[in-house]
Write a structure and sequence with these properties.
The complex is a heterodimer.
Chain A lengths: L1 E4 L13 E6 L7 H12 L4 E4 L1
Chain B lengths: L5 H5 L14 E4 L6 H18 L1 H4 L3 E5 L4 H8 L4 E4 L13 H9 L4 H14 L10 H14 L4 E6 L6 H11 L1 H6 L1
Parallel strand pairs in B: 1-2, 2-3
The chains are: A alpha+beta, B mainly alpha.
């Protein structure tokens, strides 16, 4: 797997079926717009893992 | 104290924004045989010698290196203020949580004790005695492995604002470690 860092999370339509996402955040950090994009990924069947 | 951005650290001596006479230099090299840090050491040692005298210049330098390395010998000879030993069994890319990363962190005023406390919590959570369904390391590995089997060959790392730089390290660990063994 090729890791990609520093790329802003974009609209779900930008991604093909070759992506996996890891979402890193500290406890208590909330970003509603970011979470909406992650939810959209999930609805589109694109897998992601969260680590906090 | 001067924080030299990593990109400059690797390439050529940068223009210091701080006063050379008030700057602490940390020379980190496991073997001591790598050209770049040696070139930087020699360059800045000469600059500090000009500023405060060759006999005192060593006081402004700290070495982090594996025991018995050529850097240790040079640092002893040049009268470095301190020499910290790394653990030779820890590979370079993981050495940030050994003296190679922790000495600069402590010098920069980072709360190293709290950092290590959080690190140890994660080390224990990912230990071999933690069942797979409770083990975040196993869970992440499985998720990545299954995604890979589905043909997902790119992993995008998203880091929140407070840990924005963490992704660069994670990127290097992923690029250098599992990929190498998986293809072997």
């Amino acid at each position: 797997m090729i890791p990609i860092d520093g790329e802003p999370l974009g609209d779900v339509a930008l991604y093909g079926n070759d992506r996996f996402f890891i979402d890193l955040r500290t406890d208590g950090e909330r970003d509603a717009a970011h979470d909406d994009k992650l939810a959209a990924l999930e609805q589109a069947g694109i897998p992601w893992s969260a680590l906090s | 104290m001067c924080w030299i951005p990593p990109i400059l650290r690797r390439s050529a001596p940068c223009k210091l924004r701080s006063n050379i006479a008030d700057t602490l230099f940390i020379v980190s090299s496991k073997s001591g045989g790598t050209t770049e840090p040696n070139v930087m050491k020699d360059y800045f040692f000469a600059r500090v010698s000009e500023a405060i005298g060759a006999d005192k210049a060593g006081h402004r330098f700290i070495a982090v290196t594996d025991p018995g390395s050529s850097l240790e010998k040079a640092a002893t000879k040049q009268g470095f203020a301190r020499i910290f030993h790394g653990d030779p069994t820890i590979g370079g890319r993981y050495s940030v949580l050994s003296p190679f990363g922790l000495v600069p962190a402590a010098a920069a005023g980072i709360d190293v004790a709290t950092l290590l406390k959080h690190t140890l919590a994660m080390v224990r959570s990912c230990g071999p005695d933690v069942p797979p369904h409770q083990n975040p390391g196993v869970q992440l590995g499985l998720a990545m492995g299954l995604a890979g089997l589905e043909g997902r060959d790119k992993v995008t790392i998203l880091s929140s604002r407070k840990i924005a730089d963490f992704g660069a390290w994670a990127e290097q660990l992923i690029a250098e470690s599992p990929a190498r063994t998986a293809r072997a």
